[in-house]
Amino acid sequence: DIEFSFAVHPLQIKTDSAIGSDDLLRIMFKQSPNDDIGDLRIEFSDSPRYKLGYCTDWNDFDTFPEEQDKIFTIVKTETTLFVICNEMLIISYQFSDSTENNCVSRWSEDAIIFLFRSSNAGTDTASDEYKAKPEEEEDNEEEENVEEEDHEEEENVEEDNEEEENYEDGDWIPSGEREEDIEFSFADHPLQIKTDSAIGSDDLIRIMFKQSSSDDIGDLRIEFSDSPRYKLGYCTDWIYFDTFPEEQDK
């Protein structure tokens, strides 16, 4: 069993399993050591497919990366499971869409443990490496060992950097200019945004995604109206949220 938290970092898994190899990626999620939520299986058959325990039967992917080296990024909320592979969204599954009785009750729970499953129903043969914590947390021990050595050097350059704010990977960064292009990769980390906009304020989150500086993909809009709603550019009209957090700080 491996402890982790989706609230802190997505679960990322590396594999070099090829399409047609029939390798299986199988991950069991738990809310406690003795209480399973369900498992995710991805089969590298000639037509790759997936299955979500307690929710679906086997489903063929609509799209799947052809590269042999892959990084799967798994994100779970209370309502939805997202799986991104090499920056391609391959699963976006709402638990409420399931016809199975236990899907919502199980998968809405917080997952704090996972394991690579081995059983008669299928053994994980695809996973090579995983990342379940932010890099700064994984590197904590090494940083503590060199902290004293670096302290004096940091003091020497601190005066030179007083007027310039520098941010490291993983820091919260002020949004700044609204039309500024910011480079990132979903394969490395999900995009996280903080706001204190209240329901009913009519504030708007609007994020444009691009594949290059001059080539837009589309935008995501979230409107903080009395009934919060969202719109995905080139995909949907305005859609009201089924559920939305009431806290002002999000």
Describe this structure in words.
11% of the residues lie in helices and 34% in strands. The chain is built from three helices and 17 strands. The protein has helices spanning 103-107, 135-138, 140-158, and strands at 2-3, 11-15, 24-32, 35-43, 49-52, 59-60, 70-76, 80-85, 88-94, 113-116, 118-119, 122-123, 129-131, 204-212, 215-223, 229-232, 239-240. The strands form four sheets. Strands 1-10-3-4-5-6 form a six-stranded antiparallel beta sheet, with no helix packed on it. A five-stranded antiparallel beta sheet has the order 9-8-7-2-13, with no helix packed on it. It has a four-stranded antiparallel beta sheet with strand order 14-15-16-17, with no helix packed on it. It starts with a strand and ends in a 10-residue tail after the last strand.
